[in-house]
Specification:
This protein has 20 helices and 20 strands. The strands form 3 sheets. A 6-stranded mixed sheet has the order 6-7-8-3-9-10, sandwiched between helices. Strands 12-13-18-15-17-16 form a 6-stranded mixed β-barrel. It binds adenosine-5'-diphosphate (ADP) and magnesium ion. Magnesium ion (MG) binds next to helix 1.
């Protein structure tokens, strides 16, 4: 004779309640052969369900030995016990324990999904089982659209899904009326006749009478064990073992797909909650993207401004530094300095500058202007461009011509009707009549007041006609492309120190300014990124919070999934995927919101643009799923660690 199917020896199960422990099962010795139909009866609280849970590997005894087909359960891992539940046992509960979000067919399929069976195979079998139990017309009904008896049939079909050598039914008729109870019992008897071992827990002697062996327990001990008729020869149930079962990475992909589908169903069942959870991520991702785009936009603008600083130049001023009060009185920076600098190899071009303010008058129009006296190379040095006319040349500078180049603002002030007749017109600057020979093109610049009116005259003319003073405001040197700015700076400083005998000047170089601005923008970008990351973390904590609540709320569902054979890793996977899906969908929505905002913003604020880089979008996408993984892990793990019995009791 082969090993008996189920053997319990000296099984004891204690529950801790605070300080004391309570023995729900005291010393159970029991052998159940394959093919038996056993009823376990006893008063409420006598330990029937506790025994049933141990039999079904949902729970473990405190002490004693339980062997299934000769194999001890004590040494098994949780996954091995889950495999046993899934492949060898079928549970039927008093309260059916169907999943509300799934229809009858989908509920029946769950054990086969965890068993890794292909969609076609499991759908076929689920339909067959349901039809056989008279539920063929209600495949697509949800549990709340079914009567108690119908729900119990669905749960019987689910228990049979993977074969169920042993059917464990805990008060299967407890919630049903007499007639439906009778029908359910008939089904169980039929299944037994086909070879399934059936164990029914009941407190109803009428139900127990259908069994061929009745075990009575009281206060955690077996008090009676009688057979009403001899056990028929065990028949081997026709089990679809391994039918349509997939293995390897294909199975992994399929199980991943199933978990994703379950996650979508769960999200759909709690639409508002899912949406509110996503909202945190949507706002987080959208604001991060907008802020980064804003940073990018302002950066581009700053870079444009920097390029407007002109080519790489040194500008030498009198005084020790900006704001030196004596600089106005220091008259040491003179034309000879400019000429000396001009001779140096590092200088590509040099221009002295002087400046004063004056008025410009044309007909009845009068305006205050900044008069810049510059050399002929000034425009080369600064990279200024003309929209009309020409610059003055070296000859003009030498001969103190009264020719003026006006800027765009001045031109608009003097010629509001257009510049058609501007070139050649004589204007009065102060008391000096000057002929307009050129108009500069507007330079986009964030620095300096772009509203001010500026005109350019040869510095010789300004010195002679306006200032009567040979001192210069500054000397601007355009550094030769081949010379590093630092070297030019040192050389210029050395030269002027020699000429002046002391350092009564200071040098500004655009390279420094450029670097300062660039590093400022970079610091700003870093700050922005930090804020962005914080807001995303806040969103992630929101996801974690909701997922934790969701785990508590869905404890029973998790218990059911474990009872029908879901492994801890399956539960972990399902909740993780759900968290990742929520954050991923939230991330995509956030990206769309940000892009939409960008379109509106760019349309409304033409001066400034939000620039979305593809990289930031890809990063946002990746980061949002990472948040799901990181913040979904804790809730998913707490779901996976739930005790199946306790979870089911919810
Ligand atoms: P029943 O025969 O009604 O199914 P149970 O097996 O559910 O009885 O419970 C047997 C006894 O064990 C009861 O007194 C019950 O209070 C106790 N019990 C069951 N589960 C737990 C638990 N998780 N913690 C503490 N006591 C429990
Ligand atoms: Mg019970």
């Amino acid at each position: 004779m082969a090993e008996p199917l189920l053997v319990l020896t000296h099984i004891r199960r204690e529950f801790r309640t605070g300080e004391d422990s309570f023995a729900a099962l005291k010393d159970i010795n029991l052998t159940i052969e394959a093919g038996e139909m056993v009823a376990i009866i006893g008063a409420s609280g006598s330990g029937k369900s506790t025994l049933m849970n141990i039999l079904g590997c949902l729970d473990r005894p405190t002490s004693g030995d339980y062997r299934i087909a000769g194999r001890s359960v004590a040494g098994m891992t949780p996954d091995e016990r889950a495999d046993l539940r899934r492949e060898h046992f079928g549970f039927i509960f008093q309260r059916y324990h169907l999943l509300d979000e799934l229809n009858a067919l989908e509920n029946v399929e769950i054990p086969a999904i965890y068993g890794g069976r292909s969609r076609g195979a499991r759908e076929g079998r689920a339909k067959e089982l349901l039809s056989r139990l008279g539920m063929g017309a209600r495949l697509a009904h949800r549990p709340n659209q079914l009567s108690g008896g119908q729900q119990q049939r669905v749960s019987i079909a689910r228990s049979l899904m993977n074969g169920a050598e042993v059917i464990l039914a805990d008060e299967p008729t407890g919630a049903l009326d007499r007639q439906t109870s009778g029908e359910v019992l008939e089904i169980l008897k039929e299944l037994n006749a086909e070879g399934h071992t059936v164990i029914i827990v009941t407190h109803d002697p009428g139900v127990a009478a259908h069994a061929r062996r009745i075990i009575e327990i009281s206060d955690g001990d077996i008090v009676a064990d009688r057979r009403t008729e001899t056990t028929a020869e065990p028949v081997t149930a026709n089990r679809p073992r391994g039918a349509g079962q997939r293995r390897g990475w294909l199975a992994r992909i399929a199980s991943f797909g199933e978990a994703a589908r379950m996650a979508l169903i769960a999200m759909n069942a709690h639409r508002l909650r899912s949406f509110l959870t996503m909202l945190g991520i949507i706002i987080g991702i959208a604001s991060v993207l907008c802020v980064v785009a804003l940073g990018q936009g302002s950066r581009e603008r700053v870079l444009a401004n920097i390029s407007n600083l002109g080519t790489n130049t040194l500008e030498i001023f009198p005084g020790t530094d900006f704001g030196d009060v004596r600089s106005g009185r220091i008259k040491t920076l003179v034309l000879d300095d400019a000429r000396a600098l001009q001779q140096q190899p590092f200088a590509a071009a040099v221009t002295p500058t002087v400046s004063t303010s004056s008025t410009v008058r044309l007909g009845a129009t009068e305006a205050t202007v900044m008069v810049n006296g510059v050399g002929d190379q000034y425009f080369t040095v600064k990279g200024t461009r003309l929209s009309e006319g020409q610059f003055f040349d070296a000859d003009s500078v030498r001969s103190l011509v009264q020719e003026v180049v006006i800027d765009d603002n001045t031109s608009k002030t003097l010629f509001p009707m257009g510049t058609a007749s501007a070139i050649g017109t004589i204007v009065l600057i102060g008391k000096v009549p000057c002929r307009i020979i050129g108009i500069t093109r507007r330079q986009q610049s964030g620095f300096g007041s772009s509203q001010s009116l500026t005109v350019y005259l040869p510095y010789t003319t300004v010195q002679a006609r306006f200032l009567g003073d040979p001192a210069l405001r500054s000397i601007i040197v355009r550094v030769a492309d081949t010379t590093p700015t630092n070297r030019a700076l040192e050389a210029a400083t050395r030269l002027l120190e020699q000429r002046h005998g002391r350092k009564d000047f200071f040098v500004l170089n655009t390279d420094d300014i450029r670097q300062t601005i660039t590093s400022t923008t970079e610091t700003l970008a870093l700050l922005i990124a930090a804020i962005a990351v914080i807001s995303l973390i806040v969103g992630g904590v929101g996801v974690m919070n909701i997922m934790l609540v969701s785990v508590v709320e869905r404890t029973r569902e998790i218990g059911v999934r474990m009872a029908v054979g879901g492994r801890a890793s399956d539960i972990l996977e399902q909740f993780l995927i759900e968290a990742v899906l929520i954050t991923l969908i939230g991330g995509v929505a956030g990206i769309l919101v940000a892009l939409g905002f960008g379109i509106v913003f760019n349309a409304l604020v033409p001066a400034f643009s939000l620039i979305y880089s593809p990289l930031s979008i890809v990063l946002a996408f990746g980061f949002s799923s990472l948040i799901g993984l990181v913040f979904g892990f804790l809730p998913a793990r707490s779901a996976a660690r739930l005790d199946p019995v306790e979870a089911l009791a919810q």
